[in-house]
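Weekly structure sync, notes
Attendees: PL (lead), two postdocs, one rotation student
Agenda item 3: pending single-chain targets
PL asked that the sequence for the first pending target be pasted directly into the notes so everyone works from the same version. It is reproduced below exactly as submitted, 220 residues in total.
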Amino acid sequence: MGLFDIFKKKKDYPEFWVDYLSHFKNKKDAAVPETRFIAFDTETTGFDMQEDRILSIGAVSFIGKKIDVNNTLELYLKQDVFKPETVEIHGLMRSDNVDKISELAAIKAFLEYIKGDILIAHHAGFDKGMINEMLHRHGLGKLKNRFIDTGVLYKRSLHVIYQDNTKPYSLDYLCKELNVPMVDRHTATGDALITALVFLKILGRLDKKKHLNWGYLLNR
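Predicted structure, written out during the meeting:
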């Protein structure tokens, strides 16, 4: 690929994607308490990243210990392929009162919300993969944001003696262990809020151990 092809490829990107990429130019890390984090979750039609689709995306943002409940993201996506078994699981898709948007509109809204900030999810590989597949379908690149997986981070926060590789460290398990209320569980926005609260609880544990640094927090 020559320089002209590279230039043309970059030039062909839509403006919203170019704006998203601009957040990562010369980006420097702030101190952890001063950093904007985005906890997010996806509800999907299944677990096949290529064949299944995202039904909804929920996200909450926070700096320090303050979650901005007045600035959450809640998106419901139109489905090109109807799967009856999905309706049984996700009652929200039955409701005519929910405004559903196109996949492309959801991408634009999600990227505008997350900017270049650090993303947090539970079992983050799946949510990240679903978003990346959605981006790929529209000729875009992968997410550039750095990720923190609350399941991995929780296990890392335990003393090595107490780590158990047989435990899934599910979100329900972490809520019970960390005394986090399971409000609106299994909705994208509800799970995003729960994930944020779980993360803050783990941060408190790490702070006591003097492990509150980027090398320890970020997915390796």
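Discussion points:
- Confidence is low (pLDDT under 50) at residues 1-8.
- The first helix runs from residue 3 to 11.
Action: rotation student to compare against the earlier draft before next sync.
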